[in-house]
Amino acid sequence: MKSSTSSLEAQFGPLQKKTFASALSLFFEQQCPQMGGHLTRQVLVNNIQKLVDQFYPVNSHLRMGQIMWPAVDEKEQAAYGKSMQKTKIKPVFVDMIAPEDIEAAFKGEKRMRIRQQATVRLFHQAKEQGGVLTGVDVATMMRLSPATISNYVRKWEKEHQALVPRRGTIHDMGRSVSHKRQICYKMIVEGKSVEETARETNHSPEAITRYVKDYKRILACLHKGLTPQDTAFVAKVSEDLVFEYVNLIQENQIAINDRMDKDGIIFHDIPF
Predict the structure, then answer these.
(1) Which H helix or E strand runs over 70?
(2) Are 166 and 132 in contact (CB under 8 A)?
(3) How many domains does the chain have?
(4) What's this model's pTM, rounded to 2 decimal places?
(5) N or C: at which end does the chain have fewer Cβ atoms within 10 angstroms?
């Protein structure tokens, strides 16, 4: 029995070594001998194999109209000057063409409306898979300008009073304050919980808490009569951010007064 097993191994064993992993391990052994022994190489080979599987999926897994796109990992921490080479990538599968697009076309829906719905869908599908897309990502996929994509998103957000999960809003990048505006409105004016606000705005509870803390710190400084420059120093934020929050505070003041603020806080004494 043993000799029979050995014979089979001798015949068919080499077939098990005809793999990408084996070829990669041999490459490291011959070209990078300083890397270490077999166990060290195997760890690298296994991780590279996972990356290959993510970035080059089997075509049979893709539906008609679906593509793979390299998004940024939602859990990645954005930082000033951080290059894409140092940013964790998350491949996602998105529907460039979906059944609802074809159905809308049959019903005579305007092409601009169909493109807008497709734009929003791409952002949401990436987010559901743990990745975040930029406007440039979606513009490239759809062969439209980034300005057109931005316009689609702004109109959709205004119409639905909800945020589209773009990288700029999820990772708090860029100069747009639309996400801060909606988050602070929901928390300060509508009195919603952190969990509700996080769910409705596609933000983490930590991000929600940070925005509201900044809002309240800046509001407290303004009530004490501090200038925007002094407020920026005390609150440890930029002057630009102070002015962004001043605008939000003034907008919320009107909304709260309309709702007859129950706490009796009046914002009219902001000194500018």
Answers:
(1) strand 66-73
(2) yes
(3) 3
(4) 0.59
(5) N
Query: Tens place of pLDDT for every residue, the chain, 272 residues?
Result: 555 567 767 665 665 566 777 778 888 888 888 877 888 888 888 888 888 877 777 666 678 889 989 998 888 876 656 777 778 888 899 999 999 999 999 999 999 999 999 999 999 999 999 999 989 999 999 999 999 999 999 899 888 877 788 887 777 665 555 678 888 888 888 888 988 888 888 777 887 888 888 889 999 998 888 888 899 888 888 888 888 888 888 888 777 776 654 555 444 444 33
**265 occurs within a structural domain:** no
Domain end point (choices 137, 165, 193): 165
246 φ, ψ (degrees, to nearest 5): -60, -45
Phi, psi torsion values for 250, nearest 5 degrees: -65, -40
CA nearest neighbour of 204 among 75, 43, 82:
75
Residues 6+ apart with CB under 8 A from 221: 230, 231, 234, 235
Q: Residue holding tokens 């860029």?
A: 174
Residue type at position 117: Q
User: Which of 131, 165, 199 marks a domain boundary?
Assistant: 165
> Domain residues for 206?
178-258
> Does one domain contain both 63 and 41?
no
Other beta carbons within 10 angstroms of residue 80's beta carbon come to 5
Q: State the helix-helix crossing angle for 111-128 and 146-160, rounded to 10 degrees.
A: 80
Q: Locate tokens 């490291």: which residue?
A: 28
In a domain, 240, yes or no: yes
For tokens 């007859």, what's the residue?
260
